[in-house]
Structures are given as C-alpha cells and as structure tokens.
Design goal:
alpha/beta; Rossmann fold; 2 domains; 12 helices; P-loop_NTPase; nucleotide-binding; ATP binding; DNA binding
C-alpha cells in the first residue's frame, strides 16, 4: 500500500486537495514514472513532502534546481529524503579532480589562448581571429553538453546563434568542431590548467558515467522538470527505481540554454502516468479567469487553472 505507519497517512492526506492526494497515492514501484504538471501556486512542494511522509520506509532523492531550494527542502522534508542539486551529484563523483581549476563559464579570451596553443596553421590560418573561433567553439560545446551524445559532433558545431551564422564562411562547421573537440579534451585533462572545467562540463561527465542512483534510493523526485537538460533526463530514465517528475511548462526559463521539458520528453516510457495540479491557492476565481484567458489564447493551454484561494 501507499501508506505505512498507522494513522500518519490519513493525517497527511487530510491537508491535501484531491489532485494532490492522487499524486501522493501514485504507485512507486520500481521502474514507474509519474509526471506531474503543476501550475504555479498549486502546492507542488507540499505534495512531494506528503509523498515522502506517507512512505517513511522508502528512501527518496529530491533533486532541486538550485542551492536555495535544496536548503529549504533539507529543512522541511522528512528524514527519509536526501535533498541535493544535480551539480552537487556531479561534483561529488567528478568535481574533486578539478577543484583547483573550476569556473562558472569559459572565458572566450582564455579559450582563444588555448586554441592558439593547440591548433595548427593548417586548421586555422594565421590571420584568423581566434576570439571568434573561440566563441563558436564554446557555443558548440554548450550544445554538446545539453545533448545525450557521447562526444562533440558536427550538429553541435552547426548550432549557432543568428549572429554567429555570418561567420560560417570563415569557419566551416568541421573547423568549429575540431576546436570544440580540442577544447573539451583540454577541459577534461586534469593536468592542464590552461582551460578550466565548468559545472556544465562536470554534469556532462557525470551523465556519461551512467551513475546508478537506484542503489541508494527507492524513488527520485525531480523538481522544476520543465527545465531539465536532456542528459539528466537520460540518466534518470535509465534508473531502476521509481521516478516522479514535477514542473510547470509555463515557467520554463532555460530553453535558451538548451533545457528540455522532461514532462513531455519523447524518451518517457509508454506507461508513464500523467497527473496535474491545477488548483492554485494563491488567488481566487477572478484572477484565475484572467490567467486562463492568457494561457488559452497565447499558449494553447487546455487545462483550466482553478483559483482556490480567497483573493
């Protein structure tokens, strides 16, 4: 059953809406996947907390998008939940190797210097502007980091911004790819302090290592699933434990960086269970009506947002 521990389950359920109860009562058998599309203010965090409270004998991993959310979850979730960020997982297994040479992002000037050291005149003419090639190779690497590919490919070198397209004549895709491959090799080289490792690079290395999280956890709760990177979704869907993805497609803010919506991923198994949280407790029917007009008109939303609050 979903609940153990006598009356605790009933106490948990008494404070929830019917939609929230449906999520909490979801099957958490090994290999199951549940996707919850939750409008803002519909109590997704309290729902996940209740899910964990209702199963004290199960061990949960709650994946938060940032440190602030993780710390809040650590304080508010029951002790059978480990709250971590994805970067935290990646750093635990790979970060210690690069602790002395980490950066938030690659600096284009540093990359240009590294390319000047690494590439031959046969590949890059001596009069070429290496800063431009550096920017293009960084862009190609970003595309690679957000893919499920095992190595940089030509498609990543072709994933340029509109502004960068004009450099195609100077730097064809195979040249950009060569620069990106060189850059990635130097990033991974622990003895090379000329190019820093980034958190995005660490996360890519972690995903390629195919970590087995099922050995430690009975279920994984992915928050902000609408902004999950493809490699992360790939890692999670390879786990043997239960998965619960929760997010709001209308709050996706990282598509520009290559994030994808895990709730609608083509990789989801056929038997994925799709649920929704539509009752917003932050406002009443009048504001919900206005919000629905916008969501339906501009975003094609088919589920109505229900104002369950008092304002």
């Amino acid at each position: 059953g979903a609940f153990s521990g006598g009356g605790q389950g009933g106490t948990v359920l008494s404070r929830l809406s019917q939609e929230q109860i449906e999520v909490v009562m979801s099957s958490l058998e090994d290999g199951s996947v549940t996707c919850v599309s939750a409008f803002a203010g519909t109590g997704k965090t309290s729902t996940l907390r209740a899910l964990a409270l209702s199963r004290p004998s199960k061990k949960f991993l709650y994946l938060a998008f940032n440190v602030t959310v993780r710390d809040d979850a650590t304080r508010s979730f029951p002790p059978n939940v480990d709250a971590k960020t994805l970067h935290q997982l990646a750093f635990a297994t790979h970060g210690y190797r690069y602790a002395k040479n980490m950066a938030d992002q690659l600096r284009v000037t540093d990359v240009a210097t590294a390319l000047e050291q690494s590439l031959t005149e046969r590949v890059v003419p001596s009069d070429s502007r290496l800063v431009t090639l550096a920017a293009l190779s960084v862009r190609a690497l970003a595309s690679f980091f957000n893919s499920i590919d095992k190595a940089p490919e030509l498609a990543h070198a072709q994933a340029l911004s509109t502004e960068q397209q004009r450099h195609r004549a100077i730097y064809p895709a195979h040249v950009i790819l060569g620069a990106a491959e060189t850059l990635w090799a130097r990033m991974k080289d622990q003895e090379d302090d000329g190019v820093a490792m980034t958190m995005a690079g660490l996360l890519k290395m972690w995903s390629l290592s195919r970590p087995n999280l099922s050995r430690q956890y009975d279920a994984i709760l992915l928050d902000e699933a609408q902004d999950a990177a493809a490699p992360v979704v790939s890692v999670l869907l390879a786990q043997q434990c239960a998965l619960v993805f929760v997010g709001d497609p209308h709050q996706s803010i990282y598509r520009f960086a290559g994030a994808a919506d895990a709730l609608t991923s083509n990789s989801l198994p056929v038997r994925t269970r799709h649920l929704a949280l539509t009752h917003c407790f932050r406002f009443g029917p009048s504001i919900a009506h206005a919000a629905n007009l916008i969501l339906v008109t501009f975003k094609g939303e088919q589920r109505p947002l229900i104002g369950a609050g008092s304002h």
